[in-house]
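Need a sequence for this fold. Nothing fancy.
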C-alpha cells in the first residue's frame, strides 16, 4: 500500500513515517507534501502538483487549511483520502463532503479505535441513563491550538444522536444553574499530554466514568494507516471510525 503523506514534516508525519517504515500493514510512504519540505530518501514536495510518484491513498496529517489542495488532488487523481486533521471550518467540511461524492474519504477527528469504542460506550451510557448529567473533559499539550478538541466534539455529537435536545456548554462560569439537557465540554492545555478524554455520566445515585488516554502519537499513525487500508477499493462516500470498527 503506497501512501502520499500530507504534513510530511510535522509531528504526526514523523509518526506515520516511523510506522510505515516498519512495514505496518504493508504500508510505504512514497511521497510527501509539506510547506517546509524535508530532504531524505522519500521525496517531499511543496505542492501536490509536483508529485511524480504513483500511490494507492493519501493520508492528510497537515493543517486543516490545506484540505482543499489535498481533496482536489484526491479527486483529480482518483485516490482515496484519509483526513486525520482537526479544526476544520464549516466550509472546509463541505470540501470534504464534496470530495466524498467522487472518491472514498475517511474523515475522523481521532484515528484511535479506542476512542471510537469510547464514543460507543458513552452513547450507550447516555441512552441507558437518560436523566443523567454528562460532562466531557479533554486534556492536550500546550501547543494545541483548537479547543475543545475535535475528539471531544466527536464524543459529544455521538451522544447527541441519542439525546436530540442536548446543548453543548463550553466551560462553565457565572452563577446559572446547570440545565438538564446540557453536555459540558472542558478543555485543558498543559505540558506534553498527547491526549486524554474523559466522559462522566452521573445521576443522583451513581456515576460512570469512561476514560481514554493516548500514550504515543504512534497510536494515531497506526489508525490512519488502518483507515487507508480500509477505504482502498471502497465506493465513493464518507467513512469514519464507526465504519472501521462496526
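Here you go.
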Amino acid at each position: 500500500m503506497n501512501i502520499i503523506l500530507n504534513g510530511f514534516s510535522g509531528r504526526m508525519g514523523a509518526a506515520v513515517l516511523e510506522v510505515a517504515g516498519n512495514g505496518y500493514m504493508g504500508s510505504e510512504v512514497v511521497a510527501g507534501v509539506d510547506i517546509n519540505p524535508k530532504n531524505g530518501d522519500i521525496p517531499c514536495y511543496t505542492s501536490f502538483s509536483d508529485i511524480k510518484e504513483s500511490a494507492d491513498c493519501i493520508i492528510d496529517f497537515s493543517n486543516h487549511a490545506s484540505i482543499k489542495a489535498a481533496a482536489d488532488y484526491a479527486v483529480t487523481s482518483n485516490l482515496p483520502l484519509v483526513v486525520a486533521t482537526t479544526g476544520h471550518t464549516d466550509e472546509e467540511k463541505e470540501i470534504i463532503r464534496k470530495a466524498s461524492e467522487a472518491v472514498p474519504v475517511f474523515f475522523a477527528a481521532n484515528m484511535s479505535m479506542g476512542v471510537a469504542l469510547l464514543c460507543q460506550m458513552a452513547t450507550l451510557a447516555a441512552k441507558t441513563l437518560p436523566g443523567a448529567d454528562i460532562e466531557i473533559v479533554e486534556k492536550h499539550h500546550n501547543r494545541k491550538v483548537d479547543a475543545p478538541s475535535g475528539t471531544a466534539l466527536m464524543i459529544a455529537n455521538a451522544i447527541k444522536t441519542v439525546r436530540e435536545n442536548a446543548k453543548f456548554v463550553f466551560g462553565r462560569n457565572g452563577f446559572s444553574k446547570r440545565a438538564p439537557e446540557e453536555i459540558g465540554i472542558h478543555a485543558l492545555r498543559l505540558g506534553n499530554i498527547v491526549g486524554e478524554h474523559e466522559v462522566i455520566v452521573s445521576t443522583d445515585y451513581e456515576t460512570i466514568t469512561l476514560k481514554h488516554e493516548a500514550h504515543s502519537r504512534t497510536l494515531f499513525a497506526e489508525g490512519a494507516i488502518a483507515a487507508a487500508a480500509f477505504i482502498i477499493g471502497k465506493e465513493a462516500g464518507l467513512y469514519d471510525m464507526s465504519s472501521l470498527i462496526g
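For context: Helices lie at 11-21, 67-77, 90-99, 113-128, 150-160, 218-231, 241-245.
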